[in-house]
Write a structure and sequence with these properties.
343 residues, alpha/beta, Quinone Oxidoreductase, Chain A, domain 1, Rossmann fold, 2 domains, seven-stranded mixed β-sheet, six-stranded parallel β-sheet, 12 helices, 27% strand, binds zinc ion
């Protein structure tokens, strides 16, 4: 099969690769579309690159069931499916408490096993057993269904942040995931303020329904949030970027009893400092959200199918496997909202 194969840091090549075969309990899916996620680009540039190379990245996968291994029931070839990308054990402390993304034995598409920037992908039994292969409703297009994975991560954050109707949610970073936070928090009935340093990103956020936008490169974000919230601060602050200094500055924008969610994964080895008196006397909830659970994933697909959350405007660029290298360049330069690879 043809695949975009990663041989090392910043070394990705479109080439022939062995077509996977489904072993017992496994499934091979013929891919129809794969989303390009910030995680893929970070990984390609060396952050969390798997030890066993070459590998295939891509964890946002939809397609049709192509081959079923022995003992796999409930599916037939040709069925359209969306794939929850994390292989979880279902038995550890975290899985038993519904916190599957924290599973002690987790691995997944694009980290540990080959992912979705290829014509076919093999799904391990763990993904199938946990209900991670979800049938796509008949009239839901692949290019919409492929947004279920990123949307699920936004829903996971929404759940962690315990957002209530009327809350003010401040999203720092209007990149692809920042815009997904905007959408899920609007869906939940919150007022959403977006902050970024790029006007073109803020314009997109405005078009998608942001209640206010702040360019923090030329506006004092602290003053602006004070003005917009009667000096109280936002109930929820989501840092949807990986810059520790910005995360640290964002802490003070939350109101008492509010929640700060460190969503974007910062690079290793960097620290932020905070005042323990602030955490204590203001009763701040400081948390993070990483990936999503299978339940979040199924809910995301449902919300897209019902049209409750519109995802079409998040897809700014479409590629084929052959133009995959352009996609990588555009993603690196933050030139697109979200790109998908279609087969
Ligand atoms: Zn993703
Ligand atoms: Zn587990």
């Amino acid at each position: 099969m043809k695949a975009a194969v990663v041989h090392g840091k910043n070394d990705i090549r479109v080439e022939e690769y062995p077509t996977p075969q489904a072993g017992a309990g496994e499934m091979v899916v013929k891919i129809a579309a794969s989303g390009i996620c910030a995680t893929d680009i970070k990984t390609l540039l060396g952050q969390g690159l798997p030890k066993n190379l070459p590998t295939i990245l891509g964890h946002e996968v939809v397609g049709e069931v192509y081959q079923l291994g022995a003992d796999v029931t409930g599916f037939s070839p040709g069925e359209r499916v969306a794939v929850y990308p994390i292989a979880v054990c279902g038995e550890c402390y975290y899985c038993k408490r519904g916190r599957h993304n924290l599973c002690e034995r987790e691995f997944g598409l694009g980290h540990g096993i080959d992912g979705g920037f290829a014509e076919y992908v093999r799904l391990p039994r763990q993904i199938i057993n946990i209900g991670g292969v979800v049938k796509i409703p008949a009239d839901l297009r692949y290019d919409r269904a492929v947004m279920a994975e990123p949307l699920s991560c936004g829903l996971a954050a929404l759940r962690a942040n315990r957002v209530q109707v009327g809350d003010t949610v401040l999203v720092i970073g209007a990149g692809p995931m920042g815009l997904i936070h905007l959408k899920v928090n609007k869906w939940a009935g919150a007022r959403v303020i977006m902050a970024d340093v790029l006007d073109r990103r803020l314009r997109v956020a405005e078009e998608m329904g942001a209640d206010a936008c702040i360019n923090s490169a030329n506006t004092d974000i602290g003053e602006e949030i004070a003005r917009l919230t009667d000096k109280a601060g936002a109930e929820v602050v989501i840092t949807s970027l990986g810059i520790p200094a910005v995360i640290e500055q964002s802490l003070k924008l939350v109101r008492k009893a509010g929640t700060v969610n460190i969503f974007g994964g910062p690079p290793a080895g960097q620290k932020i400092s905070l005042d323990p008196r602030w955490l204590h006397y203001c009763e701040i909830n400081l948390t993070g959200t990483f990936a999503a659970t299978p339940d979040d994933f199924r809910q995301a697909l449902r919300l897209i199918d019902k049209g409750e959350i519109i995802v079409d405007d998040l897809i700014s660029d479409r590629f084929t496997l052959d133009s995959m290298l352009d996609a990588v360049e555009r993603a690196k330069n933050q030139e697109m909202i979200r790109g998908i690879v279609e087969f």
